[in-house]
Design a protein that fits this description.
By secondary structure, this protein is mostly helical. Helices cover 70% and strands 9% of the residues. The radius of gyration is 27 Å and the shape is rod-shaped.
Length: 88
Amino acid sequence: ETNCWLFVVAQHPQANAHFIHYTSPRMHCEAKAETNKIVHTFSTVINNLILARRAKALELAQKLSEANESKKEADAELARKEALIAEY
């Protein structure tokens, strides 16, 4: 026992579980409300980061879908033009 004030919190970006944290007994005893605020703030930050990551992934997926649709249209246009050239 060090009798120190210690607070550690961590979250891995690919984790499927809630973040982990440790509060030393002394910190928990002497600053319980403040420690709870830190945990709540960290939770909010992590949730925002996860949402931002998902939003970016969604945006990229939409762009990929649009690009695939454009490719289909371009392929169809190319096939039409190749058919016209083959007639002459």
